[in-house]
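User: I'm putting together a teaching handout on how multi-component assemblies are represented. Below are the sequence lines for each component of a complex, exactly as they appear in our records. Could you produce the 3D structure of the whole assembly as structure tokens, so the students can see both representations side by side? Please keep the chain order the same as the input.
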Amino acid sequence: QSALTQPASVSGSPGQSITISCTGTSNDVGGVYDFVSWYQQHPGKAPKLMIYAVTNRPSGVSDRFSGSKSGNTASLTISGLQAEDEADYYCSSFTTSSAFYVFGTGTKVTVL
Amino acid sequence: EVQLVESGGGLVQPGGSLRLSCAGSGFTFSSYEMNWVRQAPGKGLEWISYTYNDGTILYADSVKGRFTASRDDAHNSLSLQMNSLRAEDTAVYYCARKRFGTAHFDYWGQGTLVTVSS
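Assistant: Of course. Below is the structure of the complete assembly, with chains in the same order as your input.
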């Protein structure tokens, strides 16, 4: 099972919006279940859930974070970029392959 | 407050064994699916194991036959017995909680580092 494909890096200036893509297949991201989630990870820290079931935000996560999906590609948009958003971001999906769950390759977000 | 605390990491020689533990608190441990996810140094996340209170245990192909996960709901704990360790098993190992019927990990431990090297 290959990892989901994400851009290695995305950058933006404070206040701008950025979008991170996550491309898979019909066995995972594009499957019938909306089981795509996104995680934020600061250096040396554990991942933190930011988006689940494609579009849902856990309690306490800023509404500047939003998720969407079209076909085999999911996206995470961060609006009103802030310095604290600088981190690595990983998508994840349930997969019907033997891997059960698959993560993306990760995207480093830099706030210029 | 939900807490997951891993322990047991360390340096082990190739071919050796190590047992990791994860202690849960602040929630009804038995009601949740517990998972192990690892992250090699400078690399991405990799799901490696899932356990549920119905006895279901699943593994990634990369660890199948070498790693054994188990849980003790009476003591709110999750374990990972790792045998025949390889250099490529070097990683930070996280335990992560998942609610039944969902596909996201809503709480993670802080991780424990396993280094496989001679």
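A couple of points students might notice: The interface with chain A takes residues 35, 37, 44-47, 50, 58, 60-61, 94, 96, 102-111 of chain B (CB under 8 Å). Chain B has a mean pLDDT of 96.
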